[in-house]
Design a protein that fits this description.
globular, 3 helices, 94 residues, Alpha-Beta Plaits, single chain, 3-stranded antiparallel beta sheet, 3 strands, alpha+beta
Length: 94
């Protein structure tokens, strides 16, 4: 089952590497695709119940679902995503 989530703060391949690595580690996630330009993360999952875990993991990395944070919370998530992005650039994809 394909689950697509429109998120905020995806900037580059470093973001993609971080998102892919973290989401593939979740139970029930079989594959991950990140569309940088469209800000969409798609996962192939065993079933729809995985969506909540994916959204929570994305939020923890600084890539909240679009429309889920506002104001100061949005700034905090942007700061977290910058760190995730940097980590993804220096960590080789497994």
């Amino acid at each position: 089952m394909k689950i697509s989530i429109q998120v905020e703060n995806i900037r580059c391949g470093g973001c993609t590497n971080t998102i892919t690595k973290k989401l593939k580690a979740l139970d029930g996630v079989n594959d991950v695709d990140v569309a940088i330009e469209d800000q969409i993360v798609s996962v192939e999952a065993d079933d729809q119940s995985v969506r909540d875990a994916v959204v929570k993991a994305l939020f923890a990395m600084g890539y909240p679902e679009q429309g889920s944070v506002e104001g100061m919370d949005a700034l905090k998530e942007k700061a977290k995503s910058v760190v995730s992005c940097a980590v993804g650039r220096i960590t080789p994809e497994a």
